[in-house]
Structure formats: C-alpha cells, structure tokens
Amino acid sequence: MRDAKGTVIVTGGAGFIGSHTVVELSRAGYRPVIVDNFSNSERFIAERIERILEGPVKLHEVDCNDGAAFGAVLSSEANVCGVIHFAAFKSVNESLREPFKYYQNNIGSLATVLAAIREAKIAHFVFSSSCTVYGEPDSLPVTEDFPQKPAESPYGRTKQIGEALIEDAVRSGMSLKVATLRYFNPIGAHPSGLIGELPEGVPDNLVPYITQTAAGIREKLTVYGDDYDTVDGSCVRDYIHVVDLARAHVKALDYLLAAPEGTFNEPFNLGTGRGVSVLQAIAAFEAANGTKLNFVIGPRREGDVVEIYANADKAERELKWTAELDTETAMRDAWNWQKTL
Ligand code: WQD
C-alpha cells in the first residue's frame, strides 16, 4: 500500500531522539526508514521500535560518512519525501578530549548527506541542532534570532558549523527546504519502557546520572554548584520530554511538505519555555517516583551555561507544536526505563 505521507530517511534512527522520532513518524502515517551504523547506538533498539509499532521498520546499517552507500539507500527507497538527520556524536565532555572525531563525524556526515540529497533531488531536510549554539544568552528566554556566542565545546561548535553548512547549501542554489531544530535538554523515555537513553559509561547528563544513582549504580549525584545567581543557586535548563521532541520532528516535516515552492532554512527552538534548576529537577524526580535521591553539592563544572530556556513561540505558531509533557512525567518515564536496564 502506498504510504499516506511518504518515506522518511532517519539517520541515527536507532539513537535516543531518533528512535522516539521513528515511532512518532510511523504513528503519524509516514514510513520511516532507519539509517544507522550503530557507532553510538544499540541494535536491539530497532527491534524495540518494531515491538512498539507492532510491525517491521526498514533499516540500513550504513555510515553517513559513506556517500556511495548513503546515496544507494536514497535510490533504493521509493517515495522518499524527506530526510531527518540525527547521526552525530553528542557528548560535550568527549568532544573536549576527541575534537577530531567530532569534526570528522559531525561535519563530514552532514556534508555527505546533503550532497547525496542534492543528487537524489530530495527537497525536505530536518536537521538536529542544539541550544548549545547560543552559548550563555544575554537575556532570557532565548528566541531563534539570538546571536550565536562562541561554543563552549567542539560538540557545540560542530552544531554551529553544521547550521552554517546548511545556510551555504541553501545559498548554493540547491532546491532545499530545511527546518533546523534547536533542542534544549531532552530527557525521559518512551512510556512503554521499551526505548530510552543509553548513555555510554559514566553519564555526563543530569537525568541519566539521577536514574543511575536511584538504581544504585552510582553512589550519589553531585550537583555542580549551588552558588550561581539563579532561583536556588543551581543551574537552570529547559528540560523537554523526548516524546514531545519527537513529535516536533513530525510537525516540522509536515510544515516543510506544506511549504510553498522555494528554498529556505528556518530554525526552531524546541523547549517547554520553562526554566528548571538542577535542585528542582531532583525534587521533580523524587516527587514523581516517591523516592529520596542521594546527592551532594560539589564544585561548578567548567563550561556550564548558568541559565538557559527557550521561547518556543515560533514552533507553536509555525509548526503548530507545543511541549505537552511535564518534568515529573519525564522523570517517571526515565525511571521506568532505567529499571528495565
Ligand atoms: C544539565 C545541568 C549541570 C550532571 C548538554 C549538551 C546539550 C544537550 C543537552 C544535546 C547542568 C548539571 C549534570 C551531574 C549536575 N545535548 N549536572 N550533575 O550541559 O545543559 O547540555 O546536554 O543536544 O547540547 O551540552 O546538560 O545534563 O550535562 O547538565 O549538577 O552529574 O545539570 O551542571 O547545570 P547540558 P547536562
């Protein structure tokens, strides 16, 4: 049967945001096709996605740096209406130790994918970007026209360069409509408990560290500083449920497919619009799960932005999307997922 809305190539589709987006694309009537080389994801996630969807999902084990192989995927799939590009390394800490790996993979794969898209004459592209492109904002909340400050890490810089690369692709006369999605802090997991975040080694990010502490894998959580000029002294972020984030990608694709002829790249902040401090996030986890978390206050972490949260009005206005799931729901889903690991 011809798919109602068409085939969508999802690079990095076995990853944290990618897997949740594959589920939401299918539920919305698209036919998602996963492209992943499992360099930073697990094969079993593909089977879990099929369990959630109760049906098969096509997968190509391909490295997005391999232009010939990725081009072959595009020409082998029928009725491709767009590409969503998640495939990238995303650890701030690791990027400080391994900058070359980050530039090679994150920039190389984006350039390769865009070249293949031009060859295949695919006109709709959704790019996974990050609020790290803003650095430490001068005021809050952040809107899409805020200046991009010097990134705090090679990871953040690869997202800035990625956005510039897309601008140059559009300027080159390529027929391309792009939605550049700037994620704030994705947290949580699928309510089924079948897919979620799989941090490598000791988690850098707050919520996986919280759930591993609650699970007894980590002895205690260290709060990196409580002497900042914020509501309670700890850093403030905009924590968005990964399912809300996934749904925004479907809305972004709908938006691109409905857009009038022409070439453009539109950025969108994807956040709840609410700032939540580290201590408030811990309290939300404890309230959601009826537990006490073992944490201590420690020194500040180098490179941390003090406070950032989104103005997501543009996504609401143009993508007809808003975040609907609250922090406690995300903390409940994150804990539910951790207990399955
Ligand atoms: C959040 C807050 C820490 C761990 C990163 C990326 C960003 C995006 C989300 C991809 C900070 C504090 C953390 C801990 C703590 N990823 N913390 N103890 O740094 O805001 O953003 O992840 O797009 O690009 O940069 O997320 O979860 O690491 O930290 O106190 O053990 O939690 O200091 O204030 P961050 P994070």
TL;DR of this structure?
The chain is α/β, with parallel strands linked by helices. It has helices spanning 16-27, 44-53, 67-76, 92-97, 99-119, 154-171, 206-214, 242-258, 278-289, 313-319, 327-338; strands at residues 7-11, 31-35, 58-60, 80-85, 124-130, 177-183, 185-187, 221-224, 236-237, 239-241, 264-270, 276-277, 295-298. It is globular and about 55 Å long.
Q: Helix tally?
A: 11
Largest sheet, in brief, is:
7 strands, parallel
Shape call: globular
Number of strands: 13
**SSE pattern, N- to C-terminal:** EHEHEHEHHEHEEHEEEHEEHEHH
**CATH fold call of the domain at 7-187 and 240-271:** Rossmann fold
Radius of gyration: 19 Å
Proper CATH architecture of the domain at 7-187 and 240-271: 3-Layer(aba) Sandwich
Q: CATH class of the domain at 7-187 and 240-271, please?
A: Alpha Beta
Quote the distance from N terminus to C terminus: 37 Å
Give the fraction of residues assigned to helices.
25-40%
Mean of residue pLDDT? Answer: 96
Could you tell me which ligands this complex binds, including any ions or cofactors? UDP-4-deoxy-4-formamido-beta-L-arabinopyranose
Biggest sheet: strand arrangement: 3-2-1-4-5-6-11
Low-confidence stretches: none
CATH H level of the domain at 7-187 and 240-271: which superfamily?
Answer: NAD(P)-binding Rossmann-like Domain
Oligomer: single chain
- The proportion of strand residues reads 15-25%
Structural class: alpha/beta
